[in-house]
Amino acid sequence: MQIYWTKINKVIQEAPEIRTYLLDCPEGFTWEEGAYTHLALEGFNTGDKPNRSLIRHMSISTLPHENSIGITTRIRKQCSEFKSILRDLEVGDEMAFFKTRSNVPLKREGKNIYMLSSGVGLATFRPLVLDYFERADDIKHIHSLNIDSKRDYLFTNIFESAPEKRFTSQFIDNRNDYYEEVKNLAADKDGLFYVVGSDEFLVQNIEVLRDQGIGLEQIMLDKPERKLAEFLSVQLLV
Fold first, then answer.
1. Beta-carbon contacts of residue 177 (< 8 Å; ≥ 6 apart)
2. What is the DSSP string of 131-190?
3. pTM (two decimals)
4. Is residue 96 a contact partner of residue 3, using CB atoms and an 8 Å limit?
5. Residue 230 pLDDT > 80, yes or no?
């Protein structure tokens, strides 16, 4: 396993509790849209075993041509040890990453794509949308639906409806309206539904989509294969 050590080159305060950390990109390192990585803080590997409290699974919110690895995350006042340390890091500080993969690359199958996200989960979809804007081949249309009760809507300069690009975007601040809109979107029985958020959010969306007749093969989750079965199993849909 290769571990990359890199430095923070910029910190962007996206909203009161949301930051994007832009990291220097190591020479020769690249990734796909929809990628995630294991982000690790200094000291995570100093003992006999890795200190898992200093490691987090994080989506990469940028594309390679942006020349920085973007990590967008919410940091609340009361937070984990990892987030507490991360909050105090500044430009020039180091962190590590490893095991970078993509679970949700764009499927170019000539269908409509619906991106369902909660809060900062929208960061996973940012590179997918940018990739689509650059090359819209074999995709009919993309629609983004994001729920954030705090109304800390992210990347509004990108997630803005653009009919000429066959792209629409919605931000909703309450659960009832959000799930009603999911039902409306599920009227497209041939669409592909990408879902990103907490485990609870994933389960609830799967239940709604399945109730509307959407097949499991049409639902894409930002989860490794070994965990997909936990969310796409019949037991979760009862």
1. none
2. HHHH--TTEEEEEEEEE-TT-----TTTSS-BGGGTEEEEEE-SHHHHHHHHHHHTT-TT
3. 0.91
4. yes
5. no
